[in-house]
Amino acid sequence: MAVATSSSQVLNNVEAVRATLYEALKNDDKVLILGEDVGNRGNVFLITKDFVKEFGTERIIDTPIAEASIVGIAVGMAMEGLRPIAEIQFADFIYPSFNQIVGEAAKTRYRSNGEYTCPMVIRTPYGGGVRGALSHSVSVEALFYHVPGLKIVVPSFPADVKGLLNAAIDDPDPVLFLEHKKTYRLIKGEVPDGHYVIPIGKADVKKEGSQLTVVSYGLYVHWALEAANQLESEGMSVEVIDLRSVRPMDRTAILQSVRKTRKLLIIHEDNKFGGIGAEISAMVAEEALFDLDAPIRRLAAPDVPAMGYAMPLEEAYMSSPAKMADAMREMVKF
Amino acid sequence: MASIPTQVRKSLERHGLSDEQLKTIFRTMLLQRQLDNRGFQLNRQGKVPFALGSEGHEALQAGAAMAFARGKDILAPYYRDLGLSIGIGLTPYEIMLSIFARAADHNGGRQFPNHYSSKRAGLMSFSSILAAHIPHAVGAAYALKYRKESGRAVLVTFGDGTTSEGEWHESMNFAAVHKLPIVFLCENNLWAISTPLSLQMGQPNIYKRAEGYGMPGEQFDGFDPLATYDAVSRGMERARNGGGPTLLEGVCYRFLAHSTDDNDMTYRTREDVAERRKDDPVPRFENLLVESGVMTSEQVAAMKQDVLHETNEATDKAEAMPFPTADDLYKHVYEGAWEPWQ
What we know:
The structure holds two protein chains of two kinds.
Chain A: E1 8-12, H1 13-27, E2 31-35, H2 51-55, E3 60-62, H3 67-79, E4 83-87, H4 98-104, H5 108-111, E5 121-126, H6 141-144, E6 151-153, H7 158-170, E7 175-180, H8 183-186, E8 188-192, E9 204-207, E10 212-216, H9 219-233, E11 238-242, E12 245-247, H10 251-261, E13 264-271, H11 276-288, E14 297-301, H12 311-317, H13 321-333
Helix pairs in contact in A: 1-7, 3-4, 9-13, 10-11
Chain B: H1 19-44, H2 58-66, E1 74-76, H3 82-87, H4 92-100, H5 133-146, E2 154-159, H6 166-177, E3 182-188, E4 191-192, E5 195-196, H7 209-213, E6 217-221, H8 225-240, E7 246-251, H9 270-277, H10 281-291, H11 297-319
Parallel strand pairs in B: 1-2, 2-3, 3-7, 6-7
Antiparallel strand pairs in B: 4-5
Helix pairs in contact in B: 1-2, 1-10, 1-11, 2-8, 4-11, 5-6
């Protein structure tokens, strides 16, 4: 249980995002926020509640419902020296802005040979387990992590949210910042006071262990930790790595852990085919195949278009701490 | 078919432009055509893999460039804006570096020809994806307004084809909501590669859409550089002084194929093109300048020689420059060094 101290406070993920955005707006008038319902409504999760009263409508911009230009206008602002934070209300709505992210933001520096840059953040809530149906529950990271020029952050703990969001706002390149909706109010944690930065591209070992490496990110880090603790009570030792960023990805941390435990289980909420786990599996097979004592395994969603609205359809799509514990046991005993 | 407001002017309407400015416009038009043709020649000689033409857009681009305040305004162009780009300060050498894809090119030889970028000139980087640059221009205009930099404005250009894209609509709408300092300039050449205006839109007068967004709209003869200058300079002045956005539509024509990889005889006839050639803006403006006494025939001939000479020099100088190297492939992915997994 997280406890506040004289130099920290306990926040949930919504509060961590909100506090970090607030500080950024306070500290740098080049920072502005644009998106659907971010102003008067204060964002659908109330992340930017009352910001417009303090910072004004010029900095907290309620946009028309037009995702391609929300990102595209932010690209132009960034090229012209501002530090925009664009919000896509739900990750499921990001598709209309795909070209602006992949074809424009990620390539501005490259195509102009470094003459123009695109320092901007695109924040968006993603993920399931909240009865979000087809269009309020997707994971979009695999659609974007193929793209050089883009950075993708997927934090799961409030302290990481703050440090990584600060890093994203400071970053000279475009960053896609993915916030898991189910962790928003569910996950609380100690968050240090003051400004600090966690480097993008650095994973974090959330639990040390010796018999199996579990690599995950987002909500599933929390469930993987729950499962790993269960296994510990059964006498098995599992290491849990929170990727925190999926691009760039911390190859060193993954390989270091796998060479120690000699077994690798990758767990993600997104479906298996072409997912983040595919890249990690390939990398470990290329770099550390002869260090392994078991085949690499991926625990991921089934290869179907989405989780359904009806509870059985959502449950069948989502994993669970129990399912994760089963997979871990099999791997440890292999 | 779109209404084409072309009419040969009997007398010179200066719109406040001096003789020197009129000559500058004419020289930009000549230089555009010469450089444009040079790209096609180099392609046919097998020296460059690709070139994009802009013949027919000279009057529109040289006139618009004269309304651009160098060192203040921002240009967000598209890939047919060779003349506009030299008109705001790119050099023929820079154009040829782009055509030859040399290392010293602004883009380091990464992009197709005519995809310029230059911070020095205030020319924003753009891709080949149509309309993707329009929200960028709007974002830049927002930055100008946000920083209260009055006296500056953004000029964003595009062809008729781009006006069918969603981002075009979204950008027009946002600019109108926030009364941003921007001029949307459509270079309507009546063709989206092979698709005529009649298959692109039910209302062929693009400028009329302005009313739907709540901004002024105006159409003018894009074969007339002075009508263009007049419309664009009024729009830019309005934008610089807090009057908000304007949609302008200059009607011109694309005399060449879309690119060196296109054969326009598959979708239009030589007669179609020849009919429009009768109004070719370059000889038309030349005649006007000579008839009105701004230039003599001898001065025109000397200027043409000078432009040819400058194009030849730029061609030779750029061709002699080195290509980027394989190492350059890895630069500018992110700030700092980038070591990909491989």
